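Suppose a classmate hands you a notebook page containing two proteins, each written out with its sequence and a corresponding row of C-alpha coordinates. How would you begin to make sense of it? This section walks through that situation. The first entry is reproduced here exactly as it would appear on such a page.
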Amino acid sequence: MPLEIELAPGRMIGGDHPCFIIAEIGQNHQGDINIAKQLIKIAKEAGADCAKFQKSELDHKFNKAALARPYTTKNSWGKTYGEHKRFLEFSHEQYRELQQYSKEVGIYFTASGMDEAAVDFLDELNVPFFKVGSGDTNNLPYIEKTAKKGKPMIVSSGMQSLDTMKKVYNTVKKYNDKFCFLQCTSAYPLEPEDVNLRVIQTYQKQFPDIPIGYSGHESGVTITLGAIALGAKVVERHITMDKTWKGSDHEASLEPDELKELVKQIRILERSMGNGIKTMRDCEMFTHSKLGKSVVAAKDIPAGAELTSELLTVKVAEPKGYPPENISNLIGKRTTRAIDYDDAVREEDVVMQ
Protein backbone atom coordinates (compact mmCIF):
# COMPACT_ATOMS: atom_id res chain seq x y z
CA MET A 1 0.00 0.00 0.00
CA PRO A 2 1.19 3.57 -0.59
CA LEU A 3 2.87 5.49 2.20
CA GLU A 4 0.54 8.45 1.71
CA ILE A 5 -3.07 8.70 2.87
CA GLU A 6 -5.83 11.30 2.67
CA LEU A 7 -6.11 12.42 6.27
CA ALA A 8 -8.78 15.05 5.67
CA PRO A 9 -10.79 16.07 2.59
CA GLY A 10 -8.31 17.51 0.11
CA ARG A 11 -5.31 17.00 2.39
CA MET A 12 -2.86 14.17 1.82
CA ILE A 13 -0.09 13.23 4.24
CA GLY A 14 3.01 11.13 3.73
CA GLY A 15 5.21 10.91 0.66
CA ASP A 16 6.28 14.37 -0.46
CA HIS A 17 3.24 16.15 0.95
CA PRO A 18 3.79 18.93 3.52
CA CYS A 19 3.79 17.94 7.17
CA PHE A 20 0.31 18.11 8.71
CA ILE A 21 0.51 20.38 11.76
CA ILE A 22 -1.99 19.84 14.58
CA ALA A 23 -2.45 22.58 17.16
CA GLU A 24 -3.59 20.66 20.25
CA ILE A 25 -5.89 22.89 22.27
CA GLY A 26 -6.94 19.98 24.44
CA GLN A 27 -8.42 21.51 27.59
CA ASN A 28 -6.22 24.60 27.63
CA HIS A 29 -9.38 26.63 27.03
CA GLN A 30 -9.98 26.74 30.80
CA GLY A 31 -13.60 25.66 30.26
CA ASP A 32 -14.34 28.92 28.38
CA ILE A 33 -15.69 28.56 24.85
CA ASN A 34 -14.56 32.07 23.94
CA ILE A 35 -10.97 31.20 24.85
CA ALA A 36 -11.40 28.02 22.80
CA LYS A 37 -12.42 30.10 19.79
CA GLN A 38 -9.48 32.44 20.28
CA LEU A 39 -7.13 29.44 20.28
CA ILE A 40 -8.72 28.12 17.07
CA LYS A 41 -8.09 31.49 15.45
CA ILE A 42 -4.52 31.55 16.77
CA ALA A 43 -3.91 28.11 15.26
CA LYS A 44 -5.23 29.25 11.89
CA GLU A 45 -3.25 32.50 11.88
CA ALA A 46 -0.06 30.64 12.76
CA GLY A 47 -0.50 28.36 9.75
CA ALA A 48 -1.45 25.12 11.52
CA ASP A 49 -3.60 22.67 9.57
CA CYS A 50 -5.89 21.51 12.36
CA ALA A 51 -7.25 22.66 15.72
CA LYS A 52 -7.78 19.70 18.04
CA PHE A 53 -9.58 19.26 21.34
CA GLN A 54 -10.12 16.36 23.77
CA LYS A 55 -13.64 14.97 24.15
CA SER A 56 -14.68 12.74 27.02
CA GLU A 57 -17.98 11.25 28.11
CA LEU A 58 -16.90 11.23 31.72
CA ASP A 59 -19.06 8.36 32.98
CA HIS A 60 -17.61 6.20 30.20
CA LYS A 61 -14.00 7.24 30.74
CA PHE A 62 -13.87 7.07 34.57
CA ASN A 63 -15.49 4.86 37.17
CA LYS A 64 -17.35 6.43 40.07
CA ALA A 65 -14.45 6.16 42.48
CA ALA A 66 -12.10 7.93 40.08
CA LEU A 67 -14.59 10.76 39.63
CA ALA A 68 -15.09 11.03 43.41
CA ARG A 69 -11.36 11.14 44.16
CA PRO A 70 -10.37 14.36 45.97
CA TYR A 71 -8.44 16.70 43.67
CA THR A 72 -6.87 19.64 45.43
CA THR A 73 -3.76 20.46 43.39
CA LYS A 74 -2.95 23.94 42.10
CA ASN A 75 -4.47 22.93 38.76
CA SER A 76 -7.83 21.85 40.15
CA TRP A 77 -11.12 23.35 38.97
CA GLY A 78 -13.14 21.42 41.58
CA LYS A 79 -12.95 19.58 44.89
CA THR A 80 -13.07 16.16 43.20
CA TYR A 81 -11.57 14.94 39.95
CA GLY A 82 -15.08 14.62 38.56
CA GLU A 83 -15.91 18.24 39.37
CA HIS A 84 -12.60 19.29 37.84
CA LYS A 85 -13.21 17.38 34.59
CA ARG A 86 -16.83 18.50 34.29
CA PHE A 87 -15.76 22.12 34.57
CA LEU A 88 -13.41 21.66 31.60
CA GLU A 89 -15.69 19.49 29.46
CA PHE A 90 -17.67 21.16 26.67
CA SER A 91 -21.17 19.93 25.85
CA HIS A 92 -22.17 18.38 22.55
CA GLU A 93 -23.78 21.64 21.50
CA GLN A 94 -20.61 23.57 22.32
CA TYR A 95 -18.61 21.14 20.22
CA ARG A 96 -20.93 21.77 17.30
CA GLU A 97 -20.41 25.50 17.83
CA LEU A 98 -16.63 25.08 17.84
CA GLN A 99 -16.78 22.91 14.74
CA GLN A 100 -18.81 25.56 12.93
CA TYR A 101 -16.42 28.29 14.07
CA SER A 102 -13.46 26.28 12.77
CA LYS A 103 -15.22 25.95 9.42
CA GLU A 104 -15.74 29.71 9.30
CA VAL A 105 -12.10 30.34 10.19
CA GLY A 106 -10.93 27.78 7.61
CA ILE A 107 -9.11 25.16 9.66
CA TYR A 108 -9.74 21.44 10.13
CA PHE A 109 -11.41 20.58 13.44
CA THR A 110 -11.23 17.34 15.38
CA ALA A 111 -10.77 15.95 18.88
CA SER A 112 -9.27 13.00 20.65
CA GLY A 113 -12.12 10.72 21.62
CA MET A 114 -11.12 9.75 25.16
CA ASP A 115 -13.58 6.84 25.38
CA GLU A 116 -15.79 4.83 23.03
CA ALA A 117 -18.88 6.99 23.64
CA ALA A 118 -16.86 10.10 22.77
CA VAL A 119 -15.71 8.44 19.52
CA ASP A 120 -19.36 7.76 18.65
CA PHE A 121 -20.18 11.43 19.18
CA LEU A 122 -17.21 12.59 17.09
CA ASP A 123 -18.33 10.23 14.34
CA GLU A 124 -21.75 11.91 14.42
CA LEU A 125 -19.96 15.26 14.08
CA ASN A 126 -18.22 13.83 11.00
CA VAL A 127 -14.76 14.97 12.03
CA PRO A 128 -12.21 14.38 9.24
CA PHE A 129 -10.13 11.93 11.28
CA PHE A 130 -9.99 10.32 14.70
CA LYS A 131 -7.10 11.03 17.03
CA VAL A 132 -6.27 8.28 19.51
CA GLY A 133 -4.60 9.64 22.62
CA SER A 134 -1.78 7.65 24.17
CA GLY A 135 -3.98 6.60 27.09
CA ASP A 136 -6.19 4.56 24.76
CA THR A 137 -3.54 3.17 22.42
CA ASN A 138 -3.31 -0.15 24.26
CA ASN A 139 -7.11 -0.25 24.64
CA LEU A 140 -7.52 -2.73 21.80
CA PRO A 141 -11.35 -2.99 21.98
CA TYR A 142 -11.47 0.81 21.61
CA ILE A 143 -8.91 0.67 18.78
CA GLU A 144 -10.91 -1.98 16.92
CA LYS A 145 -14.21 -0.14 17.30
CA THR A 146 -12.65 3.13 16.10
CA ALA A 147 -10.93 1.46 13.14
CA LYS A 148 -14.20 -0.13 12.01
CA LYS A 149 -15.73 3.31 11.54
CA GLY A 150 -13.49 3.73 8.51
CA LYS A 151 -12.21 7.26 9.10
CA PRO A 152 -8.47 8.02 8.98
CA MET A 153 -6.78 7.61 12.37
CA ILE A 154 -3.78 9.20 14.06
CA VAL A 155 -2.49 7.10 16.94
CA SER A 156 -0.11 8.47 19.58
CA SER A 157 2.22 5.99 21.26
CA GLY A 158 3.12 7.46 24.64
CA MET A 159 3.57 4.87 27.43
CA GLN A 160 3.58 2.00 24.89
CA SER A 161 6.10 -0.64 23.83
CA LEU A 162 6.98 -1.66 20.29
CA ASP A 163 5.23 -4.99 20.86
CA THR A 164 2.04 -3.14 21.80
CA MET A 165 2.34 -0.92 18.71
CA LYS A 166 2.62 -4.04 16.54
CA LYS A 167 -0.65 -5.26 18.06
CA VAL A 168 -2.25 -1.87 17.42
CA TYR A 169 -1.00 -1.91 13.82
CA ASN A 170 -2.44 -5.38 13.20
CA THR A 171 -5.74 -4.45 14.86
CA VAL A 172 -6.23 -1.29 12.82
CA LYS A 173 -4.91 -2.74 9.57
CA LYS A 174 -7.53 -5.49 9.62
CA TYR A 175 -10.27 -2.90 9.16
CA ASN A 176 -8.65 0.33 8.00
CA ASP A 177 -5.49 1.22 6.05
CA LYS A 178 -5.78 4.97 6.53
CA PHE A 179 -3.78 5.58 9.70
CA CYS A 180 -0.45 6.77 11.06
CA PHE A 181 1.53 6.46 14.29
CA LEU A 182 3.08 9.31 16.27
CA GLN A 183 6.13 8.88 18.46
CA CYS A 184 5.22 10.37 21.81
CA THR A 185 6.44 10.43 25.41
CA SER A 186 3.68 11.16 27.92
CA ALA A 187 5.39 13.62 30.26
CA TYR A 188 4.46 17.29 30.76
CA PRO A 189 6.76 19.08 30.21
CA LEU A 190 9.05 16.62 28.45
CA GLU A 191 12.82 16.69 28.99
CA PRO A 192 15.04 16.23 25.90
CA GLU A 193 16.64 12.99 27.14
CA ASP A 194 13.19 11.38 27.28
CA VAL A 195 12.04 12.35 23.78
CA ASN A 196 13.64 9.40 21.92
CA LEU A 197 13.24 10.79 18.40
CA ARG A 198 14.97 7.75 16.91
CA VAL A 199 11.78 5.81 17.53
CA ILE A 200 10.51 7.63 14.44
CA GLN A 201 13.10 5.70 12.43
CA THR A 202 12.20 2.47 14.24
CA TYR A 203 8.56 2.95 13.27
CA GLN A 204 9.51 3.79 9.67
CA LYS A 205 11.31 0.46 9.41
CA GLN A 206 8.72 -1.57 11.32
CA PHE A 207 5.67 -0.03 9.63
CA PRO A 208 6.89 1.05 6.17
CA ASP A 209 3.41 1.34 4.64
CA ILE A 210 2.03 4.05 6.97
CA PRO A 211 3.12 7.64 7.64
CA ILE A 212 4.95 8.28 10.91
CA GLY A 213 4.81 11.49 12.91
CA TYR A 214 5.56 13.08 16.27
CA SER A 215 3.53 14.39 19.20
CA GLY A 216 5.65 16.56 21.48
CA HIS A 217 5.29 17.95 24.98
CA GLU A 218 8.69 19.59 25.26
CA SER A 219 9.53 23.27 25.56
CA GLY A 220 10.49 25.21 22.44
CA VAL A 221 10.56 24.18 18.80
CA THR A 222 13.99 22.57 18.30
CA ILE A 223 13.02 18.97 19.00
CA THR A 224 9.93 19.13 16.79
CA LEU A 225 12.11 20.39 13.94
CA GLY A 226 14.37 17.41 14.55
CA ALA A 227 11.35 15.16 14.12
CA ILE A 228 10.65 16.78 10.76
CA ALA A 229 14.24 16.21 9.68
CA LEU A 230 13.80 12.52 10.56
CA GLY A 231 10.75 12.32 8.32
CA ALA A 232 7.75 13.08 10.55
CA LYS A 233 4.69 13.61 8.34
CA VAL A 234 2.39 14.78 11.15
CA VAL A 235 3.34 16.85 14.17
CA GLU A 236 1.16 17.73 17.13
CA ARG A 237 1.96 20.37 19.74
CA HIS A 238 -0.18 21.75 22.56
CA ILE A 239 -0.94 25.46 22.34
CA THR A 240 -1.93 28.03 24.95
CA MET A 241 -2.38 31.74 25.30
CA ASP A 242 -0.33 31.83 28.50
CA LYS A 243 2.00 29.14 29.89
CA THR A 244 1.41 30.39 33.43
CA TRP A 245 -2.33 29.64 33.38
CA LYS A 246 -3.74 26.99 35.71
CA GLY A 247 -3.59 23.53 34.15
CA SER A 248 -1.04 20.76 33.77
CA ASP A 249 -0.64 21.14 29.98
CA HIS A 250 0.09 24.87 29.74
CA GLU A 251 3.76 24.61 30.66
CA ALA A 252 4.32 22.06 27.88
CA SER A 253 2.47 24.18 25.32
CA LEU A 254 3.46 26.75 22.74
CA GLU A 255 2.29 30.33 23.02
CA PRO A 256 1.02 32.05 19.82
CA ASP A 257 4.37 33.49 18.69
CA GLU A 258 6.08 30.15 19.30
CA LEU A 259 3.47 28.26 17.28
CA LYS A 260 3.84 30.74 14.44
CA GLU A 261 7.62 30.34 14.54
CA LEU A 262 7.36 26.56 14.60
CA VAL A 263 5.14 26.48 11.52
CA LYS A 264 7.48 28.91 9.74
CA GLN A 265 10.55 26.84 10.58
CA ILE A 266 8.86 23.57 9.58
CA ARG A 267 8.04 24.96 6.14
CA ILE A 268 11.63 26.23 5.73
CA LEU A 269 13.00 22.85 6.80
CA GLU A 270 10.73 21.03 4.37
CA ARG A 271 12.00 23.20 1.52
CA SER A 272 15.54 22.32 2.53
CA MET A 273 15.09 18.53 2.52
CA GLY A 274 15.30 18.12 -1.26
CA ASN A 275 15.02 14.85 -3.16
CA GLY A 276 18.14 13.11 -1.87
CA ILE A 277 19.86 13.11 -5.27
CA LYS A 278 23.32 14.63 -4.95
CA THR A 279 24.30 16.74 -7.92
CA MET A 280 25.46 20.28 -8.61
CA ARG A 281 22.55 22.68 -8.11
CA ASP A 282 21.79 25.53 -10.49
CA CYS A 283 22.45 27.97 -7.67
CA GLU A 284 26.03 26.63 -7.40
CA MET A 285 26.96 27.32 -11.00
CA PHE A 286 28.16 30.86 -10.35
CA THR A 287 30.49 29.75 -7.55
CA HIS A 288 31.72 26.84 -9.66
CA SER A 289 32.46 29.07 -12.63
CA LYS A 290 34.46 31.42 -10.39
CA LEU A 291 36.24 29.01 -8.04
CA GLY A 292 35.76 25.49 -9.36
CA LYS A 293 39.13 23.82 -10.08
CA SER A 294 40.42 22.11 -13.22
CA VAL A 295 43.34 19.99 -14.33
CA VAL A 296 46.21 22.13 -15.62
CA ALA A 297 49.70 21.43 -16.97
CA ALA A 298 52.33 21.25 -14.21
CA LYS A 299 55.00 21.89 -16.89
CA ASP A 300 55.21 22.26 -20.67
CA ILE A 301 53.75 19.15 -22.30
CA PRO A 302 54.71 18.34 -25.93
CA ALA A 303 52.14 17.16 -28.45
CA GLY A 304 51.85 13.36 -28.41
CA ALA A 305 53.31 13.07 -24.90
CA GLU A 306 52.04 10.36 -22.59
CA LEU A 307 50.51 11.97 -19.55
CA THR A 308 51.84 11.15 -16.09
CA SER A 309 50.86 12.45 -12.67
CA GLU A 310 54.02 14.59 -12.64
CA LEU A 311 52.77 16.47 -15.72
CA LEU A 312 49.42 17.41 -14.16
CA THR A 313 48.18 19.52 -11.25
CA VAL A 314 44.92 21.14 -10.18
CA LYS A 315 44.14 24.88 -10.03
CA VAL A 316 41.36 27.35 -10.59
CA ALA A 317 41.77 27.84 -14.33
CA GLU A 318 40.50 30.04 -17.11
CA PRO A 319 39.05 28.62 -19.23
CA LYS A 320 37.71 25.62 -17.35
CA GLY A 321 39.57 22.38 -17.97
CA TYR A 322 39.16 18.68 -17.27
CA PRO A 323 37.35 17.94 -13.96
CA PRO A 324 39.87 17.07 -11.23
CA GLU A 325 37.74 14.26 -9.80
CA ASN A 326 38.47 12.36 -13.05
CA ILE A 327 42.19 13.18 -13.26
CA SER A 328 43.14 9.49 -13.06
CA ASN A 329 41.41 8.94 -16.42
CA LEU A 330 44.10 11.11 -18.07
CA ILE A 331 47.09 9.09 -16.87
CA GLY A 332 48.61 7.10 -19.74
CA LYS A 333 46.71 9.01 -22.43
CA ARG A 334 48.53 11.02 -25.14
CA THR A 335 48.05 14.68 -25.92
CA THR A 336 46.68 15.90 -29.25
CA ARG A 337 48.56 19.22 -29.01
CA ALA A 338 51.29 20.91 -27.06
CA ILE A 339 50.05 22.31 -23.75
CA ASP A 340 51.96 25.15 -22.16
CA TYR A 341 52.77 25.21 -18.46
CA ASP A 342 49.82 26.40 -16.34
CA ASP A 343 47.29 26.05 -19.17
CA ALA A 344 44.06 24.14 -18.59
CA VAL A 345 44.00 20.59 -19.89
CA ARG A 346 40.73 20.04 -21.74
CA GLU A 347 39.15 16.80 -22.87
CA GLU A 348 39.81 17.63 -26.54
CA ASP A 349 43.53 17.97 -25.74
CA VAL A 350 43.79 14.24 -25.02
CA VAL A 351 43.18 11.03 -27.01
CA MET A 352 40.71 9.41 -24.59
CA GLN A 353 40.31 6.06 -26.39
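The notebook's second entry, a different protein, reads as follows.
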Amino acid sequence: MDHLAAVEEKIVTDRIRRKLEEVNAEAQNQLAVVQDHVNFTLQQAYFRCAYECFDRRRRQEEINNCVEHCSVPVLNANNFVETEMAKFQERMNRSLMVCQDKFEAAKLQKIKSDAMDGLETCVNQAIDDSIGVLPLIVDRIKSSLSIN
Protein backbone atom coordinates (compact mmCIF):
# COMPACT_ATOMS: atom_id res chain seq x y z
CA MET A 1 0.00 0.00 0.00
CA ASP A 2 2.87 2.39 0.74
CA HIS A 3 4.26 1.81 -2.75
CA LEU A 4 0.88 2.71 -4.25
CA ALA A 5 0.72 5.87 -2.14
CA ALA A 6 4.23 6.84 -3.26
CA VAL A 7 3.28 6.35 -6.91
CA GLU A 8 0.12 8.40 -6.41
CA GLU A 9 2.10 11.14 -4.69
CA LYS A 10 4.60 11.23 -7.59
CA ILE A 11 1.78 11.50 -10.13
CA VAL A 12 0.15 14.35 -8.23
CA THR A 13 3.50 16.09 -7.74
CA ASP A 14 4.18 15.88 -11.50
CA ARG A 15 0.74 17.31 -12.30
CA ILE A 16 1.32 20.16 -9.82
CA ARG A 17 4.73 20.90 -11.39
CA ARG A 18 3.12 21.03 -14.85
CA LYS A 19 0.48 23.40 -13.49
CA LEU A 20 3.23 25.67 -12.10
CA GLU A 21 4.98 25.59 -15.47
CA GLU A 22 1.67 26.65 -17.00
CA VAL A 23 1.51 29.82 -14.89
CA ASN A 24 5.13 30.65 -15.75
CA ALA A 25 4.47 30.21 -19.46
CA GLU A 26 1.32 32.33 -19.25
CA ALA A 27 3.17 35.10 -17.40
CA GLN A 28 5.94 35.13 -20.00
CA ASN A 29 3.38 35.12 -22.80
CA GLN A 30 1.37 37.99 -21.37
CA LEU A 31 4.47 40.04 -20.47
CA ALA A 32 5.98 39.66 -23.96
CA VAL A 33 4.54 43.00 -25.12
CA VAL A 34 5.88 44.74 -22.01
CA GLN A 35 9.33 43.16 -22.38
CA ASP A 36 9.37 44.12 -26.05
CA HIS A 37 8.54 47.74 -25.14
CA VAL A 38 11.25 47.91 -22.47
CA ASN A 39 13.89 46.06 -24.46
CA PHE A 40 13.37 47.89 -27.73
CA THR A 41 11.42 51.13 -27.42
CA LEU A 42 12.89 52.31 -24.12
CA GLN A 43 16.36 50.86 -24.69
CA GLN A 44 16.50 52.41 -28.14
CA ALA A 45 15.54 55.80 -26.70
CA TYR A 46 18.19 55.35 -24.01
CA PHE A 47 20.96 54.66 -26.50
CA ARG A 48 19.90 57.55 -28.71
CA CYS A 49 19.87 59.87 -25.71
CA ALA A 50 23.20 58.55 -24.40
CA TYR A 51 24.79 58.94 -27.81
CA GLU A 52 23.86 62.62 -27.77
CA CYS A 53 25.62 63.00 -24.41
CA PHE A 54 29.04 62.39 -25.95
CA ASP A 55 30.23 65.80 -26.99
CA ARG A 56 33.89 66.82 -26.87
CA ARG A 57 32.91 70.19 -25.42
CA ARG A 58 31.54 68.48 -22.29
CA ARG A 59 33.55 67.43 -19.30
CA GLN A 60 33.55 63.74 -18.32
CA GLU A 61 31.32 64.43 -15.31
CA GLU A 62 28.73 66.16 -17.52
CA ILE A 63 28.77 63.23 -19.93
CA ASN A 64 28.35 60.75 -17.07
CA ASN A 65 25.43 62.74 -15.62
CA CYS A 66 23.80 63.00 -19.02
CA VAL A 67 24.08 59.24 -19.67
CA GLU A 68 22.77 58.51 -16.18
CA HIS A 69 19.80 60.79 -16.83
CA CYS A 70 19.11 58.92 -20.08
CA SER A 71 18.94 55.59 -18.24
CA VAL A 72 16.20 56.68 -15.81
CA PRO A 73 13.16 55.69 -17.95
CA VAL A 74 14.55 52.19 -18.61
CA LEU A 75 15.48 51.66 -14.97
CA ASN A 76 12.10 52.92 -13.75
CA ALA A 77 10.25 50.65 -16.18
CA ASN A 78 12.31 47.61 -15.21
CA ASN A 79 11.85 48.34 -11.50
CA PHE A 80 8.09 48.78 -11.93
CA VAL A 81 7.70 45.50 -13.85
CA GLU A 82 9.89 43.64 -11.33
CA THR A 83 7.91 45.05 -8.39
CA GLU A 84 4.54 44.17 -9.92
CA MET A 85 5.67 40.64 -10.78
CA ALA A 86 7.22 40.17 -7.33
CA LYS A 87 3.86 41.10 -5.77
CA PHE A 88 2.12 38.64 -8.11
CA GLN A 89 4.60 35.90 -7.16
CA GLU A 90 4.20 36.68 -3.47
CA ARG A 91 0.39 36.45 -3.66
CA MET A 92 0.60 33.16 -5.53
CA ASN A 93 3.13 31.79 -3.03
CA ARG A 94 0.82 32.68 -0.14
CA SER A 95 -2.04 30.84 -1.86
CA LEU A 96 0.18 27.81 -2.36
CA MET A 97 1.28 27.94 1.29
CA VAL A 98 -2.39 27.72 2.31
CA CYS A 99 -2.67 24.61 0.13
CA GLN A 100 0.42 23.16 1.78
CA ASP A 101 -1.01 23.89 5.25
CA LYS A 102 -4.28 22.14 4.36
CA PHE A 103 -2.30 19.19 3.02
CA GLU A 104 -0.24 18.91 6.21
CA ALA A 105 -3.39 19.10 8.35
CA ALA A 106 -5.04 16.33 6.31
CA LYS A 107 -1.90 14.17 6.66
CA LEU A 108 -2.01 14.61 10.43
CA GLN A 109 -5.59 13.38 10.38
CA LYS A 110 -4.33 10.26 8.58
CA ILE A 111 -6.30 10.84 5.38
CA LYS A 112 -3.38 10.79 2.97
CA SER A 113 -5.25 10.00 -0.27
CA ASP A 114 -7.77 12.74 0.47
CA ALA A 115 -4.84 15.00 1.37
CA MET A 116 -3.21 14.47 -2.04
CA ASP A 117 -6.47 15.08 -3.88
CA GLY A 118 -7.13 18.15 -1.77
CA LEU A 119 -3.62 19.47 -2.37
CA GLU A 120 -3.94 19.07 -6.12
CA THR A 121 -7.37 20.69 -6.19
CA CYS A 122 -6.20 23.57 -4.02
CA VAL A 123 -3.05 24.15 -6.08
CA ASN A 124 -5.01 24.03 -9.34
CA GLN A 125 -7.47 26.60 -8.01
CA ALA A 126 -4.71 28.87 -6.67
CA ILE A 127 -2.86 28.78 -9.98
CA ASP A 128 -6.02 29.28 -12.04
CA ASP A 129 -6.85 32.29 -9.85
CA SER A 130 -3.33 33.65 -10.37
CA ILE A 131 -3.56 33.16 -14.13
CA GLY A 132 -6.90 34.98 -14.04
CA VAL A 133 -5.29 37.99 -12.34
CA LEU A 134 -2.34 38.18 -14.76
CA PRO A 135 -4.18 40.16 -17.48
CA LEU A 136 -5.13 42.79 -14.90
CA ILE A 137 -1.54 43.13 -13.73
CA VAL A 138 -0.26 43.30 -17.30
CA ASP A 139 -2.87 45.95 -18.15
CA ARG A 140 -1.77 48.01 -15.14
CA ILE A 141 1.87 47.70 -16.22
CA LYS A 142 1.00 48.64 -19.81
CA SER A 143 -0.98 51.63 -18.62
CA SER A 144 1.81 52.79 -16.35
CA LEU A 145 4.37 52.47 -19.16
CA SER A 146 2.00 54.02 -21.73
CA ILE A 147 1.96 50.91 -23.91
CA ASN A 148 -1.01 50.72 -26.29
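A careful reader of the second entry would note: Residues 2-32+74-144 form one domain.
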